[in-house]
Amino acid sequence: MADPTPSKTEGVTKFDCVWTREPLPAALAPAAAGLVACRQELFAAGLVGADPVTGIGFGNVSLRIGDGGAFLITGSQTGHLPELTAADLSLVDATDLATNRVQCRGLKPASSESLSHAALYRCWPQVHAVIHVHNHALWERLRNRLPTTPEDVPYGTPAMAEAIARAAAAPAGVLVMGGHQDGLLAYGPSLAEAARELFGHGR
Description:
This protein is an alpha+beta fold.
């Protein structure tokens, strides 16, 4: 059954998450396997993980499903897990910026960055994969050299999604989240291409 999850504090979900707790459809198994493999590479590189002080997870990966706005994304607060399975993913069926709402299903609710991913899928139909990572050195070096969202726009909000849509000038690339310290978004027509966009700037 649908479970409205209220907004929470920094580091977790800020939007209204309408989550249906159920296993993902079996047809998504190949997509889930590819998503998990990409996420493991990012975890090994230290680009996805958890803050050692607060324990709050960071970083997430998504893959568009079909030609519409649905996408598969790593679940909320899974960054600390050394390995993921399909049970740690969530299928976002719909997003609504006007009401700050995400509708998803799976055994985990969708990532707190789901609206940011949705903004890139809405902006460019050619985008089929989005990677969100944290890396302080890259963030400092690329901030304001690559497209950068304003410093006063917080993560996980409609305002951030709108800022991302304005900054995404091409269907593949890297964006710096100016108001989300250490946060970067890489995106492209596939998970492999999004990863190449990211690693092309170093690790």
